[in-house]
Amino acid sequence: MVILMEHVWRPACSLLLLGAIIALPTLAVGSIASTSEPTNELDPNLSRLMTLIRQVESAGATSAEIAGLVIPLNRALELSQAIRRTPPNGTQKREEYLTQFNGIVNNTETKASQLKTIVSQRSFVNKIVLYSTSGLLAFFLAAACVFITSVWRRHQIRRTFEMRVFTK
Amino acid sequence: MRAISSSKRREFVILFIIFLVISETTVYMSITPLPGEQFLELYVLGVNRSVGGYYPHEDPNIRIGDSVHWYIKLKNSMNTVQLVAIRVKLGNQSTLSPDILQATSSPAPTVVEFKQCITNNETWELPFNWQITNATFTEGSTRILEVKINNQTYPVPSISAIKGYNFRLIFELWTWNIESNTFEYGWSLQTERRTAWLQVWFNMTMTTIS
Question: In chain A, which residues have their Cβ closer than 8 Å to the Cβ of B109?
């Protein structure tokens, strides 16, 4: 039975082996060529940080506040590229870069989270103050207008009563 | 104290409503950013940060070891902070260029990629100093093997040109899409995709090799 199976499967195995022989170098060449191709993904830490910066910005942060977050993000980007470029034998250097990278990302993330809270509160207070001030301004303007028109009317009435009739 | 007449009160209420609408609208308009055109500008300048002076001695024939100095500039007018990547690709005459209508990038191999986060209205200047460090010349075909960009050496996946004519460096702009969590070629504006790319041609003919 075993002998029969071997006999039956031999051509199929040969075909499989032949296929593997052809496919392996092709795949190897493909993987060598693709090693230099950049990836469309980003380090999850950097991706999270970028999302947080966008949130801080939409909360109403000033350009100076955003710049304070973007500068360390760019430094972290540089470090992530340096980590990728480090040769496999440069373990110590990679560790050094990785420590710096994690430190920068953690600090910036904390800073961004705090800033988001501060900026959101500030924007909310600013909006309340602005809308209330404009409401007050409308109140005073309306009161001033009513007062001026009443003074003007009184003046007109006085002028009317002070009129004298002269005969020609 | 005199009582305010009802006509005056009515007059006051009407005026107050009018002024309130005007002032609140003004406040709303001043704190809401106007939806202006959103775009990114990508351009390359020569050695003196001007249009021109792209090649050493104004000769587009680049030799091995010739240092070429350019400045790649990118201005962010997207009204938001942007994480961008500039992908530098090496191509020849037959390499497909990026397709503006389909918003697809060039299939040419990427030599190097530069990533940067830029704030709104900021212009990022990337010094791009490059030189060809290794190439072969066989049977009338020039093949660039290695380039040095900003003091880093990069291997070039097989790109050759007949007699060394019409090589080109293609610069493509990719942006980080927060929704899809990936770098995408160009950028999205509501439903449409916009792209920015540029290329600089050069030759590497055998006659120019010292």
Answer: 33, 36-37
> What letter represents residue B127's amino acid?
P
Please choose, from the candidates B122, B195, B115, the residue with its C-alpha nearest in 3D space to the C-alpha of residue A42.
B115
pTM for the whole thing?
0.78
Q: Which of residues 74-113 of A touch B (CB under 8 A)?
A: 74, 77, 81, 85
CA distance B67 to chain A (A): 23
> To which residue do tokens 């540029």 refer?
B198
Task: Find the domain containing A71 and state its range.
Answer: 40-125
Which has more pLDDT, A25 or B180? Answer: B180
pLDDT digits (tens, 9 = 90+) for B13-44: 999 999 999 999 999 998 887 777 899 999 99
Whether residue A164 lies inside any domain: the answer is no
Total tally of structural domains belonging to chain A = 1
Q: Å from A115 to nearest chain B CA?
A: 16
Give this complex's ipTM: 0.83
Q: State how far the Cα of B105 lies from the Cα of A68, in Å rounded to an integer.
A: 33
Task: Select the residue of B109, B119, B183 nearest A36 (Cβ to Cβ).
Answer: B109
Contacts of B180 in chain A (CB under 8 A): none
Q: What is the DSSP letter of B206?
A: G
Is residue A53 one of the residues assigned to a domain? yes
pLDDT in tens, A82-113: 998 888 888 999 999 999 999 999 999 999 99
The one-letter code for the residue type at A103 is G
Nearest to A150 among B8, B85, B174 (CB): B8
